[in-house]
Amino acid sequence: MDQKSIREQVIKEYLSSEVSLRSLATKYNYNHNLIYRWVMEHQRLKRAGKPLSGVAELKDLPEPEPMSTDVGSLQEELRLSKIRILLLEATIDISDEQFGTSMRKKVGTRQS
Q: What confidence tens digit (pLDDT) does each residue in 53-76 have?
């Protein structure tokens, strides 16, 4: 197996699973910094619209559906979205209460 195909395989394996750079470095006998550079280069090229050849796109998003211009249906979608947000917020509150955690982060605080 040549280095280009190994490189593509390592990038694909890293992006498609939760395996760490260090474990990949051990598995393929490469330095983890080199694998990191490969992945960063792949992502840079992907953002530029030029992914490395042979590496499959992992998360191709479908084209968004055209939006309705009917006011009534848009208002109904908005109402359902607000209900969904309320449900998610209630789920977070219940989780915080049961597990004694604080899942919400304070907005506007600066990190030191």
A: 544 454 555 666 676 788 888 899
pLDDT category of residue 109 using cuts at 50, 70 and 90: low
Question: Using alpha carbons only, how large is the chain's radius of gyration in Å?
Answer: 22
| Residue tagged 């109904």 (tokens) | 76
Is the pTM higher than 0.85? The answer reads no
- Of the candidates 21, 5, 17, the residue with the CA atom closest to the CA atom of residue 53: 5
Q: What is the C-alpha to C-alpha distance for residues 102 and 67, in angstroms, rounded to an integer?
A: 36
Q: Are residues 39 and 31 in contact, defined by beta-carbon separation less than 8 angstroms?
A: no
What pLDDT is attached to residue 86? 95
Three-state SS string across 44-85, please? HHHHCCCCCCCCCCCCCCCCCCCCCCCHHHHHHHHHHHHHHH
Q: What secondary structure does DSSP assign to 2-42, as a single string?
A: -HHHHHHHHHHHHHHS---HHHHHHHHT--HHHHHHHHHHH
